[in-house]
Amino acid sequence: MLRILFCLIVSLAGTLAGATGSGVLAGTVRSQDGTPIPQLVLTLVGPEGSRTVVSGPGGRFRVFGLAPGDYRMEVSAPGFLLSPEPHVTISDGEARLDFALAPAPLREHVVVAATRGEAPMSELGSSVSVIGGEEAVQKDPAALLDLLPFVPGVSTARSGGIGLYGTAFLRGGESNFSRVLVDGVPVNEPGGFFNFGSLMPLELDRIEVVRGATSSLYGTDALAGVIQIVTRAAGPDARQAAHAEAEGGSFSWRRGEAGSSGRAGAFDWNAGIERLETNNQEPNSAFRETTGAASLGARLSESTLVRLVIRGETSTVGTPGQTAFQRPDLDASYDWKGLTLSAELHKTGDTLAHTLRAGYALTDQLSLDPLNSGTFVPRYGNVVGPFPISDFTDPKGFQNNTRRQSLGYEAELRAGAGHLLSIGADLERETGSIGSLTTGPVVSPGRTNVGVYLQDRATLAGRLFVTLGGRVERNDSFGTRAVPRLAMAYRAWQGSGTTTIHASAGLGIKEPSFLQTFGTSFFALGNPSLKPERSRTFDLGVEQRLLGDRLRVDVTGYDHEYLDQIAYTVVDPVTFQGSYVNLGKTRARGLEATLEAAPSPLFNLALAYTFLDGVVLASGSTFDPVYAQGQSLLRRPRHQGSVRARMATGRISWGASLILVGTRTDSDFEGLGLQASPGYGRLDSHVGVKVGRDFEAFAVGENLLDRKYMEVLGYPALGRSVRVGLRYRSSGDR
Questions:
Q1: How far is residue 330's CA from residue 51's CA, in Å, rounded to a whole number?
Q2: Statement: the pTM of the whole predicted model exceeds 0.85
Q3: Domain range list for the chain
Q4: Cα–Cα–Cα angle for 211, 212, 216, nearest 5°?
Q5: Which of 53, 63, 114, 629 has the highest Cβ tally under 10 A?
Q6: Angle at CA of residue 423, ends 418 and 425, nearest 5°
């Protein structure tokens, strides 16, 4: 009996040994534009059946122990197409299979901001939206800020015309509750504020918007989410090309742009420059700006890439004030300079990738009001203000100059089957000069932040994608804090349509601004004992793709709490001395819904809707009743929706968009007692006609129905405008 059992074991071992080959298959998987796709589930089908492998850092994969024969690779991922399926023949050596995935009719985006590394959106679990650069070209917006309202969960507000102050609110958070990155470099002013007003979509590759606390990766500022702006880089197959365009139109609009891109050996470049001039609509609101952007890359070896990205702008704009309530201030203005530098060294191996980043961000604003225009009494219709308001002059100007220097390292490690670990550290140094150059004092504070983080992206059973991470942040202002985050995506159904259930939860932190910590004014004294502002966020949703990826529907519910918010308060009612305290608490609950359809390659339709139930739970501010407990959140609408349609037929392309914004809580801040801003709708349209091989004539109409509205109370938005232009793109620039 023992002899028979021994023979069976030997026979089985021989069979298994014969079935296990010595062949090896290695390769990379990328998107059509050359972006590597890690953590993608691949199926290799061959003589012995199928084997599943998950791509690692840089989209690389390696399969061992393959028997000789013919193999084909299969991929089942929403938003991607693999046609035809790549084939390879395996022998006793190592074979190579590099391939790219084509976009489905409704393409899948590979994003970076949600995990600090490339990741397909459908595997993230987080709520993420992407606005592509081509979409920006097709809409031809007057400014980058005009693209953000089409993202669910995002509302914007601008104080009048193009170039004036513009802010963005994510999921009911304050305008300084979002981490803003330009090519991976944090560009928020210390304390979180960022002015979108003068930012143009020059050489834009995409905008990534991550909703939900992401301090586990980025530390301070990411209470409500992240907005990342990515500059276009030349693709792997790019040819030398040039592009230029010029346009003019309403409000004395004049804009010119030119650029070049290409690849020469190991080097690639993409660069452009733009000049914009417009008088806007109100007196003394003329805007002048020159901006430039460049992305320069050098591949030192097959696995090592160096990239330098530069974006800069200089502008000046008149600031007439709340002209709906008062006479315009004809001499006030501000000058703005912004500069962002990003340098990155990236080295990728089969199981380990290293990234070293360095960044520099400068924002320099000088607000001027040299002449005293006298006092005035505000009025709106039949409502007259209870007291006169003076013009507070500042001949030399109020300076707000801040600099943010950053250095970071990250290692991505394939840790067993289906796990991709990210381990990183960041060092940030913040400095500034803030104050009136006329009366002083000008404070010049500095702050250093250090953070370390760990993240695991796990793929389980080919259907469940889990991202778990945390960060420890050491901040000069508030000390040391730890913040975790969890996100999950589960493909409940894969077939003719893919059903994905996704959820995420996290904690966020935000440092005080320089003035809140270091201010020396008697009426706004800094408080060095301030705690960080905090958030607790959660969302749950489902995405359904149908009709061969020609229809996508996503519905997500969210619940955010913002705690220990910093509020200005009068600490001495006798002397009216003011300072800052952690007293505020707000809640934002709601629903986000999107529908995208591409019934044909020539037509695309997108709808978005956001419901926001935002309320002040606790307020430390006595400045205005709109901040009182129980009030709705300032300048964040309860209802907001958008519709976009694009169509292309032969030489003609056409697009239209409609933004619908509901009533918002707001304040005139001049004693008139106004506490709400009416809702509005805005219709825009774009048409382009090919003229020859390389030219396109285009026309853009904005606010075509000429609706009268104010995004911020007192500041009328632009009326109807029409722009026409001519665009040149050389045949290599496609």
A1: 72
A2: yes
A3: 20-103, 110-227, 228-729
A4: 125
A5: 114
A6: 160
